[in-house]
Amino acid sequence: MENGIPLVADPYNLIITGVGGQGNVLASRIIADMLTRLGFTVTIGETFGASQRGGSVMSHLRVSARSCYSPQIPKGRAHMVVALEPTEAIRVLKDYGNPGVKVIANTRPIQSIGVICGEQSYPTEEEIRAWLCELSESVWFIDTTQAAIALGNPIFGNIMAVGALSATGALPLQKDQFEAVLREKMSSEKVAVNLTAFDMGREMLSRTQHPLH
Amino acid sequence: MSILSEGQSGNRVLLMGNDAIARGALEAGVNVISGYPGTPSSEIIQNLLQVAKERNLYVEWSANEKVALEVSAAASFAGLRAMCVMKQVGVNVASDFLLHLSLYGTRGALVLVSCEDPGALSSTNEGESRPYAQMMEFPLLEPGDFQEALEMTQWAFDLSEEIRNVVMIRSVTRMSHASGNVVLGALPTLTPRAVFNHEGPLLGQMEGPVATIPGIVDFMHRRQQDKLKKVTALFDASPFNTYSGPEAPDLLIITSSVCHLYSKEAIELLHASHRVGLLKLGTTWPLPPKTLEAALRRSDKVLIVEETLPLMEDNIKAFAVERIGTIGPKTFFGKKEGALPPINELNPDCVVTAIAGIFGLPYEGMPATYADRAAAIAAKGAPVRDLTFCPGCPHRASFWSIHAAIAMDNRRGFVCGDIGCYTLAAGATGFKTLKTVHAMGSGAGIASGFGKLAAFGFNQPVLAVCGDSTFFHAAIPALVNAVHNRSNLILVVLDNSGTAMTGFQPHPGLPTDAMGGNALALSIPDICKAIGAKVSICDPFDLPNTQKTLLALLEEKDGVNVLILRQPCALSPQKKNKKRFHMHVDNTKCIGDACGCNRLCTRVFKCPGLTWNSELKSSEIDEVLCAGCGVCASICPSGAIEVKEVE
């Protein structure tokens, strides 16, 4: 291994999911750029285009010290799911979950049009909590949307999720790399608020002291 | 600032497949890039635009793909290096010119990039353009990972100049929109000069007129096939074709493109690397015969893994028959005998299933009890997310009015749809208003046909829709046809001032070109009037006026009427994140089901910015999503939805 930093698994399979418009793609790029700077080989698989229009969005990140992996994670092989929308975590676990998977889930729902028009129902927060606990080894619930609105714009929820992920220690994601990537990707006036969002995400996760199980 | 131009030779970076293709073109010294936007191809040009000035490029979003290829060809004829980029369906549009182009050939390099969409993740089809390479006889390359996407693109320019013909690179969504690590090469310093030499002999490749005319076609066709012979030898020496695995495996996999990564992973998941050999072909047409023969000698069982058509499969089987004397009989597995699905994109699991089936190996991707429970929970806990128009999208308002006018007219009128965001109006989000959907421009074309059926007793009103970019791309000839032939129809141009579906690229109706320069904005109303259609213009957010206008047009039984519904896309730079109105539901006035409106705003209008609060039994505005367009206030019969102008 080039950098000497061990991975929990190789390849480590991370899925970031949410609804079109939540900043899923940017979050996955930032994480992948951070890991690339550490010398890991990263593949991101994502589909976008039509799914921007209110559809489910999912990014697959494969992190390896050895090789370039397929942009699609095999069935049942996710190690971590970061969900910017809670029911999207359930959708992902159906295909990629396993008894050892970990989940970080934003609690704020985004209703689909099927729910809005009354043709489908959206589960209660209690149901979602119970199901995610049942389908994973551990799950952290954080209300990133509310915190992001407080910070000035709901879009910062994706960066909070990146911060939360870094606080789990599942991947070697450090703040200095985050800042370096941010400075490459964003205009300088946007850096400070995104650093704050990252810290808020870290803090929200660590406040959830013991992952629910 | 762009990694495409700033990255130094030797830097290891993370690039999206489309960026890797763009960087490869820059490293090859590309001068001219043209194309028409289409997912998953659009970022190649989008990202090259960012470095156009510093790298001295000419970059153009053309009116359609055929024109784009003609623009790139002109650059090639003038000795420059050109690249033309499109999605799979675009190659169909360009194919008329492409056939002639590949017959005559090129001068400066001309690389055609086709980004395709197996599984139709954001397309209305999963067609592919690899067969064009075979049908029109030019070489085809398929990158197998991100590094190859860069290096192969760079090499494609050299290859094109070596044989003086088009070279096609075929990517797929899982390569174009996936990202991976790439080591950059150097960017050249260039001072190209464009000259079109046309004074030489007709049969000259580099000096004379570029023309294929009767009498010389046989010479041209022979010359083209001689080029392919040269390509075959070059392909056999190509480093993009690699073999890994045992000397004599129990099974040989032959694959290409991103299927290479799926195959590699499947072998790993099954711990079968001691039994399975992997021939990865980067050059897939014409096939490299020596490489292929050497690989086929290794094993009697051969699995061919590719998306979507069994193109390599058919060609390799034909090759194996020719060589049966030296390679012996083979058993083939692939799409034809059912080892792999004949439709949809592949993934590692598809290949695992195929290999496990051939060997009789056990494999469980997910514990069965977990899979059953997760499926049961997902059925209850993960409501389906149908695609919908964005909050504030003018199309929702347009289709609300179109749908209402057709219903009020009550003569079974219908709308012939077209390709863009508004294709979603075939579903619930646009009130199921579109009744036909095919290729770009086909809405107006099909309507032109329907509008001529009165002699057969046809008396339904015929409408068609197209977007502003689609209008320039392919609707104009259909409109010409309808007017000339005195067809009866209403064409509604949903003008949202950009090519919204693919990221808001400019088109000929806008005053700015792709590179940000001043362009001549062509007026859609003036063009329609010049063609001979009657033209009206409305703001779709003004529901009463739009519906009144539509009803009046439906009353007019003869001729071609064009209604332009003009309102910028909610995601357009001037509108994005800017609300015109603060919306609020007064829940004393909104009485829900008791109103008799059937929850018109949430159940029927279906804007995601409105939600239904089942406890309050009232609609609510979702502040996170609402774009503040104000349209929902016009549809509420109780006046419960209030608008307040944003200061």
Relevant terms:
heterodimer, A: 213 residues, 6-stranded mixed β-sheet, 6 strands, B: 647 residues, alpha/beta, 7-stranded mixed β-sheet, 6-stranded parallel β-sheet, 22 helices, 24 strands, 18% strand
Structural account:
The complex is a heterodimer of chains A (about 210) and B (about 650). Chain A is an alpha/beta fold and about 210 residues long. Chain A is built from eight helices and six strands. Chain A has helices at about 25-35, 85-95, 115, 125-135, 145-150, 155-170, 175-185, 190-205, and strands at about 10-20, 40-45, 55-65, 80-85, 100-105, 140. The model of chain A has no long low-confidence stretch (mean pLDDT about 90). In chain B, helix 10 (about 260-270) links the parallel strand 10 (about 250-255) and strand 11 (about 275-280). Chain B is built from 22 helices and 24 strands. A seven-stranded mixed β-sheet of chain B has the order 3-2-4-5-7-6-12, sandwiched between helices. The model of chain B has no long low-confidence stretch (mean pLDDT about 95). The two termini of chain B are about 35 Å apart. The longest helix of chain B has 20 residues, at about 215-235. By secondary structure, chain B is of the alpha/beta class. Chain B is globular, with a radius of gyration of 28 Å. Chain B is about 35% helix and about 20% strand. At the A-B interface, helix 1, strand 2, helix 2, helix 3 and helix 4 of A face strand 1, helix 8, strand 8, helix 10 and helix 14 of B.
